[in-house]
Amino acid sequence: MRVTVLIAWLLALVMSVVRADEPALEVSEVEPENRLHRVTWTDAKSETRTVAGRVLLKAQDGGLLLESRDGRLWNVTPKQLQKDETTDELFQPLKAQELGEQLSREVAELGIKTPTQIVVTKRYVICSTAGRKYAEWCGSLFERLHDAFQAYWKAAGLELREPEFPLPAIVLKDHAQFTEFAAKHDRPDAAQSQGYFSEPTNRIILFDLTAGPNSASAQTTADIQKKITSSPFNVATTIHEATHQVAFNSGLHTRYADNPRWLTEGMAMFFEVPDLESRSGWKSIGRVNAPRRKDFRETTRSPREAVPLVELIRADDVFLKERKTRAAYAESWALTFYLLKTRREDVVSYLKTIQKKPRLIADSPDARLREFEEVFGETETLEREWKKWMSTH
Ligand SMILES: [Zn+2]
C-alpha cells in the first residue's frame, strides 16, 4: 500500500518537469516497430550503466524513458545520457526462466544470503527465499486473482490485455529480510510497509506471512492455508499489491501516467478482500471490505481526519498527510465500492478516459476534477448521495 508513497514521490520528481497546463516538453512515441536499443548513461550514483530496452518516450531535450526486457522503467536525463544505439533486433520481454535468474541475481546482489528458488506459473515468476511451497501458494493465489480480475472487467464491458511481461514477484522469508531488501531495492519508507508494488521495476515485493517471530515457516499447503486464514488482514496486503501489478500490466492503468491515486488505491482495495476458499475463482469480488468500511465510518465522523470528496478527486497529496492517510484510503475504497455497485457503466467510461493518459504528463487539479465531474456529475451532490448510500451498506 505504501509503495504509492514512493511512487508519488518519484512521479512528483519526474512530473515536476512536465505539467499539462504549462508549456510542456514535447515527447513523442518514437519506436512504432519496437526496436531494441542499447542505452548507456551515468546513473545517480555516478556509475555507468548499459541497458537494452525499448524507448517509450523521447523528450525534446534528449531525455529518454526506457523500458528494459524485464519490464523495468528507466528515466534517463539528457545530462546522464552517454549513448543511445539502435540495434537490428526487435524488443522482446525476457522469458520467464531468464527473468527468474535475473531476480535471483538482484536478491543476491542486495546482500540476501538465503538461496532463492524460482517458481514459474502461467503468468508469474516468483523468486523466493521463503521456500518452494509458499512460493507455489502465492503463485496459485496470484493466478486466481488475475483471472478473476480479467473476468470482472470483461463482464463490465472493459476489455483488458494479457500482461506483456512475465509478472515478477519477490517473496522474502520473513519481515526482517523484507525490510533489508526493500530499503536497498527502493527506499527506506518502502521497508516500513507490509509489501508493495514497485511501479518503476514492475515487481511486487512481499514476505512469508506464515513466518512469525517464534514459529517455523509452514511446510505444507494445508499448513499455509491454516495459518493464512487466521490472519486475513495480512493476506489482504498480498492481494492488494498483486492487484496493483495486474492493473498496471493489463492496461487498466499505465505506469508513469497520471492515474488518480483514489482510483488506483480504490481498485486495489475493491479486490483485496481475501477469498481463500474458492479454488476455481474469486467469488468474493465486490464484497464489503470490512476493515476499510470501519475506517470510513470512523474517519468521516472525525473532522480532524475526514477528507472532503473534492480534495480527494483534485489531487493525491491527501495520501501523504499523516493525519489524512487513513481517511484517504478508506474514502477511496468507499467511493470505488459505491460507484462500481451503483454506476458501473460510468466507471468504465471514466476508466477509458484514464487509460488514454500519456506517460509523464501530470494533469492540473482542475483538469482532474473536470474529467471526474463530466462523468459522475457535480461532486457535492455526489458526495451527499454516496454518504447516504454508504450508511446503509
Ligand atoms: Zn496500494
Describe the protein's architecture and organization.
It is a single chain. This protein has three domains: 3-90, SH3 type barrels, CATH 2.30.30; 96-252, Glutaredoxin; 290-390, no CATH class. The chain is of the alpha+beta class and 393 residues long. Helix 3 (132-155) crosses helix 7. Strand 4 and strand 5 (73-76) form a beta hairpin. The chain contains 14 helices and eleven strands. It has helices at residues 3-15, 96-109, 132-155, 175-185, 188-191, 221-229, 232-249, 261-271, 290-300, 309-314, 325-342, 344-355, 365-376, 379-390; strands spanning 27-28, 35-42, 48-59, 64-68, 73-76, 81-90, 117-120, 124-128, 167-172, 196-197, 204-207. The model is unreliable at 1-25 (pLDDT under 50). Zinc ion binds next to helix 7 and helix 8.
List the helices and strands and how they pair.
Elements: H1 3-15, E1 27-28, E2 35-42, E3 48-59, E4 64-68, E5 73-76, E6 81-90, H2 96-109, E7 117-120, E8 124-128, H3 132-155, E9 167-172, H4 175-185, H5 188-191, E10 196-197, E11 204-207, H6 221-229, H7 232-249, H8 261-271, H9 290-300, H10 309-314, H11 325-342, H12 344-355, H13 365-376, H14 379-390
Parallel strand pairs: 8-9, 9-11
Antiparallel strand pairs: 1-3, 2-3, 2-6, 3-4, 4-5, 7-8, 10-11
Bound molecules: zinc ion.
Zinc ion binds at residues 1, 4, 240, 244, 265, 268.
